[in-house]
Amino acid sequence: VRPGTHKEYGDTLRRYVRPVLGPIRLSDVRPVDVQGLYSAMHSAGKGGTVRLTHTLLKDALNQAVKWQYLARNPVHFVDAPKRTPAEKMRPLNPAEVDRFLSATRGTRWGTLLHLLVGTGVRPSEAYGLAGRDIDLTAGTLTVRRALVWLKAEKRFEFNEPKSRAGRRTIPMPRGLVAKVSEHIAARGGVGLDDLVFVTRDGTPARHRTVVKHAFKPTLKRAGLDEATRIYDLRHTHATLLLTQGVHVKIVSERLGHASVAIKPDTYRQVLPTMQQKAAEALDQVLYTGTPEAP
């Protein structure tokens, strides 16, 4: 895995798993011990981390079974942690999107926030965009890499997409093309290897800085739920497309998924609208202009 991911896994094991399960002999770990760990983490307000912990333990102990250190994996007998309401996505509806984008007017990172809504790219993918990745004539951007800040090592790192689907070219809405063009012109142009989005002193964008000084203040100015996450702009992009009848495969391709990975439970709130559009489409095909039967 990537260095940042490796660190996250190690931190999770060190902070939560080892203090509880560490003293127990591997062959003596029971499902109730794992369930107790999850319960303790939930009580400590670490609901989101519980799901990562579940995945790590399951994979690690699956390996223990393969190496015959264990006869069976105790994690298989524990219910996978569910998302709490606070952890679920909060996509913006069209009216909220309008308020959000209006609230970016005149701000330094406004074009970046427009781009996240208008393309569905991950924030780290937007931070990694260079001049060569933007084609204003064709109105497209190409995702080739992601830029992340490694806090422990105090340095930036470019990561290649995890899959071939992650490296993609995305057509931008015309309004967004104009915004990006204005942004580049305001900077006096952007070279092929220059990052499109940088700080005032020309350094790469740090995710924490963008969230704290751009995204959260924009939510506040727009009067929107401040529990909304910047990653929800990606979900907003997908939701807007789905409710407009765009095929799920196209939406998945824009998001860079390796497969058609849009799950019904993830976008449950848009399904009624999609079902209604489907019924209206059938009505046009089956009944419009058809005389009623006697």
Written overview of the protein:
- With 294 residues, this protein is mainly α.
- The protein contains 11 helices and 5 strands; from the N terminus they run ααααααβββββααααα.
- The strands form 2 sheets. It has a 3-stranded antiparallel beta sheet with strand order 1-2-5, with no helix packed on it. A two-stranded antiparallel sheet has the order 3-4.
- Helix 1 (3-21) crosses helix 2 and helix 4 (94-102) crosses helix 8.
- The longest helix has 20 residues, at 47-66.
- The relative contact order is 0.10.
Outline of the structure:
This protein is mainly alpha-helical.
Keywords:
single chain; 294 residues; mainly alpha; 3-stranded antiparallel sheet; two-stranded antiparallel ribbon; 48% helix; 7% strand
Topology (elements, then pairings):
Elements: H1 3-21, H2 31-43, H3 47-66, H4 94-102, H5 110-119, H6 123-127, E1 134-135, E2 140-143, E3 146-150, E4 155-159, E5 168-171, H7 174-186, H8 207-222, H9 232-243, H10 248-255, H11 271-286
Helix pairs in contact: 1-2, 1-3, 2-3, 4-8, 5-7, 5-9, 9-10
Mean pLDDT: 87
Secondary-structure element string: HHHHHHEEEEEHHHHH
Structural class: mainly alpha
Largest sheet, described in full?
3 strands, antiparallel
Query: Which value, in Å, is the CA radius of gyration?
Result: 23 Å
DSSP strand tally: 5
Order of strands across the main sheet: 1-2-5
Low-confidence stretches: none
Count of DSSP-assigned helices: 11
**Between the first and last Cα atoms, what is the distance in angstroms?**
68 Å
Bin the strand percentage.
Answer: 5-15%
Classify the helix fraction into a percent range: 40-55%
What is the approximate shape?
globular
